[in-house]
Amino acid sequence: MKKKILTIICLVSIMTACSSNNKNVNTQWWMENTQFGININNVWSQTTGNQDIIVGIIDSGVDITNKNIKDSIYINYNEIADNEIDDDGNGYVDDINGWNFYDNTNDIYTAFTSDYHGTMIAGILTDKDYGIAPNIRYLPLKCFRGSEGSIEDVIKAIEYGYDVGVRLFNCSWDTNQYSEELYEVIQSYQDAIFVCSGGKNYENLDLTPVYPACYNLSNIICVGGITESGDIYEFSGYGNDIDIYAPGADIYSLMPENTYNYSDGTSLAVAIVTGAIALAKSIDPLVSCEEIKERFSESYNDFNNLNTLDVNKLCFGN
Ligand SMILES: [Ca+2]
Ligand SMILES: [Ca+2]
Predict the structure, then answer these.
(1) Active-site residue 231, yes or no?
(2) pLDDT band at 75 (very low <50, low <70, confident <90, very high)
(3) What is the DSSP string of the chain?
(4) Known active-site residue 71
(5) pTM for the whole thing?
(6) Which residues surround ligand 2, an ion (CB under 5 A)?
(7) What does the pLDDT look like over 46-63, one tens digit per residue?
(8) pLDDT by residue (tens digit) across 126-168?
C-alpha cells in the first residue's frame, strides 16, 4: 500500500435525481439562456473547440468508454500501449490516456463510486450531446478515489500535465489546508490557467479561504455556483475572491457506465468555466489569464449583482 501524505480534499457534487435515458427532454437550462445561463449559441457558430487545446482534469478517474467522450480523449502517440515499456521515457509506463496518480497505474478508471465525479467533469467539457467544447481534448489526471486524495499526487499531476502540453487545468475540488508546495508549483507554471472551486460550503471566502482557489496568484480563477434563478448556489462559497459565477445546479451530465444524471455542485460550475475558457483559447490560443479575468470583471449581471459567465462576452468581449 502506497504511503500517502494525506490532506482532506473534498470533491463537490451532489446528485439530485436519477433521470431516465430520455434524451429528448430539454436537459440543459443553462446553455443558451442569456440571463443566468452562459449564452453559448453565437460562440458555437464559430467553434466547438480546437483539438490543440488540452484540458487536464485533476479529479477522480474517467470512464472514457462512453461514445460521447471517447473521441475527445488525449492520446499519447509516443507511447506504445500495453508493452510494459516506458517508450517515451517520461517515467510513466504505458501512459496512453493520462495517468492514475492515486494508484500509480495507467488505469484511469476504477469503479462508478470512485470515479463518477471525474467522468461528470469530462462530460460537461466534451460530451458530444451535452458538453461545452466537444472538439477539445481532455487528459485524465486521476488523483482521487471518491473524495480522498493528496496534495502530493496533485503536484505530480500538474507537472505531468504541463509536460504533455496542458495549459488549462480543471480543479473541481478544494481544501482548507494551505500548502506552500502546491502554491509554488502553480506559481511556477505562469502560462497555465488553473480553474478552481470556490468551495462546497456557503461561506465567505474572505473569512474562510479554500485552496487552491484562494491562493493569491494571477493564473488561478476562482469559481462560484449559481442556480437557474440567479441565486448563489446553496453550497457555493462567495465573496470578493470569486472571479466568476457559473451555473452549478440542475446540470445534466454523463456518469460512468453509459448513464446520465442531474447534479448540483460548485464542481460543475468550475467545469463550465473551464469549457468556456477552452473555447476562448480555441479562438485565441494566446489569450492570457489576465485578459480572461478582465472580461469576467466586465461580465456583471445587474439582476443578482454578481459577475456571471457569458461565453459570448468571454470570447468576443461584448
Ligand atoms: Ca511513458
Ligand atoms: Ca509502452
Answers:
(1) no
(2) very high
(3) ------B--EE--EEEEE--S-TTS---TTTT-SSSS---HHHHTT-S--TT-EEEEEES---TTSTTTGGGB---TTS-TTSSS-TT-SS-TT-SS-EETTTTBS-----HHHHHHHHHHHHHHH-TTT-S-TTSEEEEEE-EETTEE-HHHHHHHHHHHHHHT--EEEE-EEBSS--HHHHHHHHH-TTSEEEEE--SSS-BTTTS--BTTTS--TTEEEEEEE-TTSPBPTT--BSTT--EEEE-SSEEEEETTTEEEEEESHHHHHHHHHHHHHHHHHH-TT--HHHHHHHHHH-EETTTTEEB--HHHHHH--
(4) no
(5) 0.94
(6) 79-80, 83, 85, 87, 94
(7) 999 999 999 999 999 999
(8) 999 999 999 999 999 999 998 899 999 999 999 999 999 999 9
Q: Could you say which of 60, 117, 282, 299 is catalytic?
A: 117
Q: How far is the CA of 213 from the centre of ligand 2 (A)?
A: 36
Reported as a single tens digit per residue, the pLDDT across 185-209 is 999 999 999 999 999 889 999 999 9
Q: Which ligand is nearest to the CA of 89?
A: 1
> What is 29-316's CATH topology?
Rossmann fold (3.40.50)
Instruction: Tell me whether residue 60 is one of the annotated catalytic residues.
Output: no
Domain residue limits, the chain: 29-316
